[in-house]
Amino acid sequence: MALMNENFNDVKQSYLFAEIAKRVKEYTEKNPDKKVIRLGIGDVTLPLVPAVVEAMKKGCDEMGVKETFKGYPDYEGYAFLREAVSGYYKSFGVEVSADEIMISDGAKSDVGNIVDIFSQDNVVLVTDPVYPVYVDTNTMSGRKIIFADSTEENGFAAMPDDSVKCDLIYLCSPNNPTGAAYTKEQLEQWVKYAKKQNAIILYDAAYEAYISDSSVPRSIFAVEGARECAIEFCSLSKTAGFTGTRCGYTVIPKELMINDKNGNTYSVYKLWYRRQATKFNGVSYPVQCAAAACFTPEGQKQIKANIAYYMDNAKVISAALDELGIKYTGGKNSPYIWLKCPNGMKSWDFFDKLLNEVQVVGTPGAGFGVNGEGWFRLTAFGDKENTAEAVKRIKSLKF
Amino acid sequence: MALMNENFNDVKQSYLFAEIAKRVKEYTEKNPDKKVIRLGIGDVTLPLVPAVVEAMKKGCDEMGVKETFKGYPDYEGYAFLREAVSGYYKSFGVEVSADEIMISDGAKSDVGNIVDIFSQDNVVLVTDPVYPVYVDTNTMSGRKIIFADSTEENGFAAMPDDSVKCDLIYLCSPNNPTGAAYTKEQLEQWVKYAKKQNAIILYDAAYEAYISDSSVPRSIFAVEGARECAIEFCSLSKTAGFTGTRCGYTVIPKELMINDKNGNTYSVYKLWYRRQATKFNGVSYPVQCAAAACFTPEGQKQIKANIAYYMDNAKVISAALDELGIKYTGGKNSPYIWLKCPNGMKSWDFFDKLLNEVQVVGTPGAGFGVNGEGWFRLTAFGDKENTAEAVKRIKSLKF
User: Fold this and answer.
1) Which pLDDT score is estimated for B42?
2) Which of A157, B51, B65, B362 has the most CB atoms at less than 10 Å from its CB?
3) Residues A101, A107: Cα–Cα separation, whole Å
4) Is there a single domain that holds both residue A93 and residue A152?
5) In the listed set B270, B295, B320, which residue is the last one of a domain according to the structure?
């Protein structure tokens, strides 16, 4: 008799965005004349830049001509794209070779599927509040999960505790949902901690393009020793508006090794390559062309203009919170603003207040973990005009 | 200490295509003047049809305009594509509703990732010779695998044996590598067998578009009772030349249920949806536009012309084998021709003979399993001119 993977019963149903959608729907049905502004969901709103669209269309055209048609892509991605990513790393001072880069259909797929190569006995450390994928994918494969607290006291940047033992460590910096970004010194502590116990850091750099502060590394590989203890996941979703176009990349240094129980040593890159060769068939050629266009001088210029647009929104939101005396993290090296609900309000109460009184939708921090209660996430990915209007409305609120 | 998933040590390194590449390279280096014709790898050679290219480019253009830009796609795929696939099934008499269809970046991803939702204790039945992904993905997750023999005697169409117990059954029809296609009566026996022991059939229909014989179903769901015991995987790779464009779909009927160990019952569709929502973020919008264009009247007409082109190649190869008195399966409802090496030759010996004497490259059957020894796969996916030339050369051989 076919039986299910019973670990699925331990995966928490994610009610967060469904519950938000439900409350917004109820409100708009009762108040059809009110204009609701959404600063909640972490999706981008600006279209793909012209350089990307042109490159993708050129890729489509090539697929329609016998001489330039492309069949099965390489599992690891086309060399032209991996070279471009390698050059991108170089532009901010990090050396990663093209044959340490594997292209995928998005960081979420890689962050989710990477668990396949690890023992089920590994203990997983995540910071709380947390992007739910780190927890859910490990719950599905039956691993024990422990938490490191990101709190107001540590600026929502959890730090390692030498007395805690773990085997896999998920870090996301700049962080989703808190917008906090680790400094080089903080990452050095994590690398030191990981190496001490032969743990592997799974580093999610999806928001690296929003970093402006030179003390905040764009990559874990800017930290000495990280090449022997870390995998980095990155994505074009937020860097270049690829949420609907789907392309990301994972960096596994050739030095990164892992043991079996008998102490034999294996290349993590080779294990991941084997996993991908077995369960994945590469990324669409026109999408890889589009992705490569992100790294040309023209593409970079256009993409950076979009990032600046979003960061202007972040500044508008931050300035209002400063004016209101509301505490927050993020908004500087991150498109997320993570604010403390005024007067000790709980996350969902603040959500209801914003929705009902000024028709602004955000994301209750409690949905991201225990330490998110009493906090609230706003995103800079909205329209300039809507963001300004939302901020004006929030300032009109009486707390 | 981070430890690897030790099941990876049990995954056989796939030397098949690497070994072919090595021998071809050695030969061409020694004989640079000889023109080698490849009828080995299962990749297509005709470009995407115009209707598909146009739709994909239109999708790209929409991504470049704010009003039509698309962010995160639905995990299950856009409704317009799922409706189109549902209509396609209807065109050959099978009722599958759009909300039983999940779009993905290719059948290989789904066939590979589906193992996530099943218990590791399930016993897996595969037919031998076999597409290696069924074996490797289950080896990686530590499942016991047993084999049903596809042999010359049963026309390389293994049938169930009631004395054999199993929980998951992989069937591929028309088959890769043997080209054999199950009749409706044969599939009815498999469905009966599966239902008797509450097993689930994982049905790979990647080559369904090559079926011309009305006794051969295009879908497992043409068989009564299959909706309660089967999942179907399909792909546009061979149907529409999407090997480099990447799009497929998986059908899970709403009736299909699975138990946990306590006898509680769960929807397989919901488990798979949950898996995809956690580890996947949907398919690129322009690619979904391209896929939908395959199912329009114009798209269908253009795609069917390409399939006819390949099947003309199959006829040319089959006619030559008939003339030479060489036994084979496939070539009728399949782009693969699976031939018995003449005079009791072994697969690799025949490979070397073809390469060295007439510079034609095929795939040794021994690479697909024990029952493949002494057999050899040719594909119809080549050029018309090259296929004719290869056949002429094979006919010149002395056996």
Assistant:
1) 85
2) B362
3) 13
4) yes
5) B295
For B122, the closest of A2, A116, A290 (CB atoms) is A2
Do both A66 and A33 map to the same domain?
Answer: no
User: Cβ of B198: how many Cβ atoms within 10 Å?
Assistant: 15
Instruction: Tell which B residues from 84 to 103 touch A, by Cβ distance under 8 Å.
Output: none
Nearest CA to A340 out of A331, A330, A354, A327 is that of A327
Residues of B in contact with A379 (CB under 8 A): none
pLDDT band at A398 (very low <50, low <70, confident <90, very high): confident
Interface contact A61, partner B, CB < 8 A: yes
Q: How many domains does chain A have?
A: 2
Cβ of residue B288 closer than 8 Å to a chain A Cβ: no
What are the φ/ψ torsions at residue B123 (nearest 5 degrees)? Answer: -95, 135
Q: Give pLDDT, residue B242.
A: 98
| Residue A41 confidence class, pLDDT cut points 50, 70, 90 | confident
Tell me phi and psi for residue B3, to 5 degrees: -120, 150
Whether A260 sits inside 8 A of B198 (CB atoms) is no
Extract the tokens encoding A393. 């409305």
Question: In this predicted structure, what is the pLDDT of residue A130?
Answer: 95
What is the complex's ipTM, to 2 decimals? 0.97
Chain A nearest CA to B119, separation (Å): 4
- Whether residue A80 lies inside any domain: the answer is yes
Q: Per the domain annotation, does B288 fall within a domain?
A: yes
Q: Is the pLDDT of residue A150 over 80?
A: yes
**Cα–Cα distance, A174 to A377 (Å, whole number):** 14
Q: Which residues of chain B have pLDDT under 70?
A: none
Percentage, residues of chain A above pLDDT 90: 97
Lowest mean pLDDT segment, chosen from A11-25, A169-183, A356-370, B329-343: A11-25
Q: Chain B neighbours among A 318-337 (CB < 8 Å)?
A: none
Question: From the CA of B326, how many Å to the nearest CA of chain A?
Answer: 31
CATH number of the domain residue B319 falls in: 3.90.1150.10
- Rounded to whole angstroms, the Cα distance separating B380 from B209 reads 14
B236-268 pLDDT per residue, tens: 999 999 999 999 999 999 999 999 999 999 999
Domain containing B149 equals: 50-295
Give CA separation, B193 vs A358, A373, A374, B118, B225, in Å: 61, 53, 56, 19, 11
Domain final residue pick, B295, B313, B337: B295
Nearest to A167 among B1, B112, B281 (CB): B1
Instruction: Please write the tens of the pLDDT for every residue from A44-65.
Output: 999 999 999 999 999 999 999 9
Do A65 and A146 lie in a common domain?
A: yes
B92 CA: distance to closest CA in chain A (Å): 28
Same domain, A217 and A240: yes
Q: Is B185 in CB contact (< 8 Å) with chain A? A: no
Please tell me which of the candidates B9, B60, B106 has its beta carbon nearest to residue A57. Answer: B60
Would you call B280 helix, strand, or coil by DSSP? coil
Q: A260, B3: Cβ pair inside 8 Å?
A: yes
B31–chain A Cβ distance below 8 A for any pair? no
